[in-house]
Amino acid sequence: MKKVVLLCGSPRPKGNTAQIVGECAKVIRDQGLLAEIYSLAGKKIESCTACYRCRDEGNCVLEDGLDELIEMIRGADGFIVASPVYFGTARGDVMAALQRIGMVSMASDRFLSWKVGGPIAIARRGGHTATIQEMLMFFFINEMIVPGSSYWNMVFGREPGEVWSDDEGIRTIRLFAENVARLITRLS
């Protein structure tokens, strides 16, 4: 069965980002695909050291749990990344994870190529578009396919649960998740 891996880049296991990722997973499952969530909450993701040992190993030699996510993505058809906005950009550990995942893919079997997915940004007030643009670079340089939605994949909310007041944002991410699932289905 076709599968989408969703990366929740929030340190809060029940925060707005986690709630949005859960909603995307529900939409994907409603489309008949598997959806698996990987959360960075409680993890200490290191930055890439450019050691290039992934060329020989086929995985990352840093031992912080990211290889589990890499193996999940390797076996999936889609990959969605959601990050809260911190000071106008994606959280540092989210970008560290994406950079390492991209490095392993490029240095080994290019497992990201032709996977379907894209980024989602969640913030109280601003920085959404810069965050989406920052994360989009990962998808494009890895030859991934990013479907659109009715607007940018952003949702407004600060306190846990506030995102549900952003009706347009919720509709946008639901359509995005549906489009990811539909495109995966059409490509297969």
The computed structural class is alpha/beta
Number of strands: 6
CATH class type: Alpha Beta
CATH architecture: 3-Layer(aba) Sandwich
Helix percent band: 40-55%
Characterization of the model:
This protein is of the alpha/beta class and 188 residues long. The protein has helices at residues 16-30, 54-57, 66-74, 92-107, 128-141, 167-187; strands spanning 3-8, 34-39, 78-86, 89-90, 116-123, 154-156. It has a single domain (3-182), classed as 3-Layer(aba) Sandwich (Rossmann fold), CATH 3.40.50.360. It contains six helices and six strands, in the order βαβααββαβαβα. Strands 1, 2, 3, 4, 5 and 6 form a six-stranded mixed sheet that branches. α1 (16-30) packs across α6. The protein is globular.
